[in-house]
Amino acid sequence: MLKKIALPILSVFLFSACSLKMPEFSMPSFLSFSNDEEKDALALEKANVCQKMENIDNKLFCYRKIVDENSYAQLRLGTYSVEKKDYKKAIEYLNQSIQNKNAYANLALAFLYYKGDGVEKDIDKAFKLLGDSSDTDPNAAYQLSRFYLQGINTEVNTDKGIELLEFAASKNMIAAQKMLIKIYTEGLFSQEKNAKKVKEWQDVIKKDVRDTNFEVYKL
């Protein structure tokens, strides 16, 4: 049951050489903590107690007990509210999380502004939200790379796009690693084919390190 709740929100958008459409958004979980690392780590630890609960009602009760003070509870209840199409509540929770300096909430809110779900569609706002969190959240970096590579809401900037992809890939985002392999294999986005870089990222993937970049958003 929990998979059905989480997966639609967490599904990764796929790059394709033959189908470069507007980006869809994925949720992110490599965690680079905020300035107050200790406080942030404690908040995450507390929220993860709720996340480990099997029963959905107990899980929600647990989050709601701490939601006024815990930015990760706000984030997860926000993404859960998106799944339930309760956009008013989702926006409230996600804005709370952002106000409490949780950069991971930017991606979820950017998703709503990009799609126009529960808010007036605003790609400028989505672009800014992703930009503000792309140095912390690998998922935001991965999504923002599409904007620069395709010139969505900005001028094409392949260097910036590749830089964002490499950041995401360095945090073990497998989708970003695979995209870099595709770029350097086929010479996409004005990049020269580069067998050395292809092998480097292929070797990283072969290590089979678990990609946990979505855990932070899971209820």
From TrEMBL:
N-terminal signal peptide: 1-21
Question: Per its UniProt entry, which superkingdom is the organism in?
Answer: Bacteria
Record's keyword annotation contains Zinc-finger: no
PROSITE patterns, per database record: PROKAR_LIPOPROTEIN (PS51257)
Q: Does the keyword Disulfide bond apply?
A: yes
Q: EC number(s) for this protein?
A: 3.5.2.6
Protein name in UniProt: beta-lactamase
